[in-house]
Amino acid sequence: MPRPKDRDRDGLLPDVCFFLAHGRLPERAARGGGLVEAFTLKYSPNALRERDLATLWREHRQQIEAAAAPNEPWVAKALRDPQTADDEQHEQET
């Protein structure tokens, strides 16, 4: 998995956090924000992606919840029911 953490701060890169919170890539990339990392995570094979999502959720839950507030983070839905999360993600892309 690409480096999702920000080297200069204790947290996720902004675009990776956005993807985990909302289930889609941001419309505009944040400067140095990890758009490539978010893209790679979004389109990685399912088994690999599920493992990576679980790790990122476990390690950065508070940051992701804050970014998604007041809604439930997409990554929580994706881990609970991967098929529903994939369907939701495809709806957002169309």
Descriptors:
94 residues, mainly alpha, globular
Give a written overview of the molecule.
This protein has one domain (14-93). 63% of the residues lie in helices and 0% in strands. It has helices spanning 14-22, 35-42, 46-68, 74-80, 82-93. α1 crosses α3, α3 packs antiparallel against α4 (74-80) and α4 packs across α5 (82-93). The radius of gyration is 12 Å and the shape is globular. The chain starts with 13 loop residues before the first helix and ends with a helix. The mean pLDDT is 84.
Q: Based on Cα principal axes, name the global outline.
A: globular
Strand tally, please? 0
Share of helix among residues? 55-70%
Q: Please state the CA-atom Rg, rounded to the nearest Å.
A: 12 Å
Sheet/helix structural class: mainly alpha
Mean pLDDT: 84
- Rounded to the nearest angstrom, the distance between the terminal CA atoms is 27 Å
The number of helical segments is 5
> Which regions contain 5 or more consecutive residues with pLDDT less than 50?
none
Number of domains: 1
Order of helices and strands: HHHHH
Major sheet attributes: none
